[in-house]
Design brief:
The structure is a homodimer of 266-residue chains.
Chain A lengths: L3 E4 L2 E4 L4 E3 L3 H4 L3 E9 L2 E2 L2 H14 L10 H11 L5 E8 L5 E8 L5 H6 L1 E7 L13 H12 L4 E5 L5 E4 L3 E6 L2 E4 L9 H12 L3 E4 L4 H7 L2 E6 L3 E8 L2 E2 L4 H14 L3
Helix pairs in contact in A: 6-8
Chain lengths: 266, 266
């Protein structure tokens, strides 16, 4: 089966989802994007993703296509390729004539063992420019994740100049300790769509949410249950940090993950 | 006449110089680039540009195409499109199969009045990630330059968290005062190919080169002859900063520019 994509509302062959290297916006990666989860032909939390797309675009002065009808464009792609479960990506390049693409790939999902045994992460010093924006300015994230992969880890945690862990390269980050869940303040990180559900789940489980980015040194010294969240990961426990085993209450992260996934069907 | 481009050594139509939005390297703007000046069918300072391209690539772990033969690829494009004077761009996307493009446009040049009367610049707070690398991580530069253009200015100067002017979005920056030329240290800025010539010219004209990034506040208060340099600009005087007129010895910047351009023929 040949895959399709959407370009400004038109159904095209996926291999025509191309951009010119001579365009200033392409050269500057002046684009915003969202990664979506399609489950049973339905995009999970689409209004949240579209709100964030609009917010990212507004923050960098990028005009979205005026006639965008995301729901119907998505439906057309789901229909054309007979999608049931998939990971979908919206990206919009700015400029005088904005160029919006919707593409898809097989549903990003992870082995059960990642959830029962936890994953390994590394730390990487760096601060995202405009952290609340989901844009193509991704070199730091790319390099940090490459570094993690070279060390056999699943994700890299970004550490700011004050030694605080803000977020992962494609995830939000949390530490649970003594009945409290610590995570970076909203203004310092990408406002993850799944993060909203995680914080709701934490409250429901009786945890107090504290908006303080955990210090890498504290985490190394004092531990706590660490986990990541993202659209694809749900809530994923961390059991290794920079090669060192760290204790983790995976039953607790599993409870959070169950709630997060249950609400996706709402 | 239909324009051409080079993709990994192959001559293609320019409108085929495209990259897929589904590629992780394209999404992350994981690429390095150079802007070249072709004068009388000859690329100015090509070895310097290629050295910097290799340095940018090495710093981010991007593998250039092994079989790259830039000189012959450039010659093929010059020949195919009958180029005499032009601005040329090399860009190389990384990944398992690096994708190198050479494209061109009309020679970027500026009215004589820019050199005799000077140009307007604005200041913009922000620090480039990996400042010595010429990569696609350009959102800050894009936003700063858009901001300058909205204010009717020609270029934006980037100001770091300590209030120092490091460089322009596509230029290096200098202030001359009391026989000294001040400019940011090499490690904080892109090592401009034209910057090398500017520093050589300054020495030849009896100026002492001081590697200190000028403070924005000092420049506002105490003035000095400000100018920019880049491959396209040569040395260009600045006579307006954030809307305020600033005095400038344009005869001195013209002397520097003449030397810089004269050495291009070497």
């Amino acid at each position: 089966m040949s895959k399709h994509a959407i370009r400004n509302g038109q159904l095209i062959a996926e291999d025509e989802a191309l951009v010119p290297v001579t365009s200033r916006e392409v050269q500057s990666a002046f684009y915003v994007y969202e990664a979506l989860r399609v489950i049973a032909r339905h995009v999970v939390h689409l209004p949240d993703h579209l709100r964030r797309l609009e917010s990212s675009a507004a923050q960098i002065g990028l005009k979205l296509p005026e006639a965008a009808n995301w729901q119907s464009w998505i439906d057309a792609l789901v229909e054309a390729d007979g999608l049931v479960d998939a990971t979908m990506r919206i990206c919009v390049y700015g400029g005088r004539e904005p160029l919006a693409f919707i593409t898809w790939q097989e549903l990003l999902s992870y082995p059960d063992s990642y959830y029962s045994d936890g994953v390994a992460v590394t730390s990487y010093t760096g601060e995202r420019f405009l952290p609340q924006c989901k844009t193509g300015n991704l070199l730091l994230s790319y390099l940090a994740l490459e570094d993690a992969h070279r060390q056999g880890a699943f994700e890299a945690l970004l550490v700011d100049r004050r030694g605080r862990i803000t977020e992962g390269t494609r995830s939000n980050f949390y530490v649970i300790k003594d009945g409290r869940l610590y995570t970076a303040p909203d203004e310092d990180v990408l406002s993850g769509v799944t993060r909203i559900s995680v914080l709701r789940a934490a409250s429901q489980l009786g945890l107090e949410v504290v908006y303080e980015a955990p210090l890498l040194d504290d985490v190394r010294r004092c531990g706590g249950t660490m986990f990541l969240s993202s659209t694809s990961m749900g809530a994923m426990p961390v059991t290794r940090l920079d090669g060192q085993l760290v204790p983790c209450d995976t039953a607790l992260t599993a409870s959070i993950c169950s709630l997060v996934r249950a609400w996706e069907a709402d």
